[in-house]
Amino acid sequence: MYSSAANVSERLQQPPSLAISTVIFALRPSESSGRPTLWLPLVRRIREPFRGLWALPGGPLSHTESLLDAAGRNLQETTGLVPKYLEQLYAFGGLHRSPSQRVVSIVYWALVQPTEAALAEESANVRWFRADRLGTLAFDHNEIVEYALWRLRNKMEYGSIAYHFLGPKFTLAQVREVYEAVLDKSLDPANFRRQLKATPQIEATDEYLQGGKHRPPRLYRYTGAAAAHAVPGQPAAGEPALAYTFQQ
Amino acid sequence: MYSSAANVSERLQQPPSLAISTVIFALRPSESSGRPTLWLPLVRRIREPFRGLWALPGGPLSHTESLLDAAGRNLQETTGLVPKYLEQLYAFGGLHRSPSQRVVSIVYWALVQPTEAALAEESANVRWFRADRLGTLAFDHNEIVEYALWRLRNKMEYGSIAYHFLGPKFTLAQVREVYEAVLDKSLDPANFRRQLKATPQIEATDEYLQGGKHRPPRLYRYTGAAAAHAVPGQPAAGEPALAYTFQQ
DNA sequence: ACAAAAGTGTTTTAACTACACCCATGG
DNA sequence: CCATGGGTGTAGTTAAAACACTTTTGT
User: Fold this and answer.
1) Residue B25: which CATH number?
2) pLDDT tens-digit series, residues B125-145
């Protein structure tokens, strides 16, 4: 049934191969200003095509795991990170994304906390880059990151997404810094704090952040859209549970 | 190299197969009230699994076409429709979507005009259904339609999507009817018309719709987010060109 | 002339912006 | 006591909701 010749034509007729990739965002202090900025980890390709170039972490889809599980596992394997937020971004299936074979990539995007991001092992083949200074990446990964950035900013503008960058307790100024870093514009502290205090999911604790140079700010807690590990999160504003959130 | 035994295990180890499906929305007059309501075409399955049940139109992904092209072609083949708007919805890749084999479906959603929708051939195996009265569909297609409805309503609320349901010229009341049908609530005609007149993409023509029972309303034209056939559309509000629009 | 939809005006309400100001803490 | 970020107050602007009203057509 499988002659050698049939084998070759079979390979040409093969359906596109399926891959999973992830765009991982974290806030890290800028080297220059020290203010938080957007970073993401990339892996260096050790094989053709695009050997030596940096690329999004990813890999093939095992036939025993869902798309989300595959993205989470892959991310864990390549960077050691466990994301607090993980959602499907888009399926990229252009004909010439990879020079050798046809590849359809289902791309996820993730948010991780800076404490986790600090733990992420950096090596010769895994390195963090500022999202606005990536250089040329392998495949169509520059466009993918651009789209992920657009989605992130979009969700940020009317959403409850910012808290996934932060730990369980945070000051309102920290939330503002997240917004300022992602949207790349400064916001009025007074008005911003009023907006946050008007959202019921943000609740004040009786703790204050000590150790700063000035008046210690109050710590707050986010009580929405968080669920146990690997359990569908509470959808925000009627959104179906296709995005998943993880406790801490 | 391919013994019969290896062949069997090979099939079990096979990567998930890839399929394309499309949720097609159109407005058609309700049988009872005559007001426009949301409808979508389904195809009856003639094979197992789920033989006899209704399902979203779809099919395999040819290796010579992009995901968008595959969705457009498939839609054309099964319903004869050429959509005015076609955008990727989501990639569904749960483990048990299909009882026999693992299938990853990349689902698109489309909007078509009622004139086109009327042309769509109905047959024993293709029929239009009201979006809110579908019954039980094959696979996870009920959930997919639910998600598509959510996305449609979401995009409608802050978007320039409604016009893709309509022809090149329309009255402001017709736009309002689109909103009312999709969002399933009535809107104040006065305020709605003011909002539309404030959007620069909607431009008045000097024509009026004749033949009505009352004062003839002015016809308007939509001048945004339309491009030549098979050419990336003008992104709305900074959105990347991952959705495609087609002239008329 | 009358019904009904097209189209306009006006008042009220809510939300956001800008910015002045007070508070608490480390140095 | 002063610099600085934390935190509050308040007037001005803008957008939307509610609804009364006028206009224009077919019958």
Assistant:
1) 3.90.79.10
2) 999 999 999 999 999 999 999
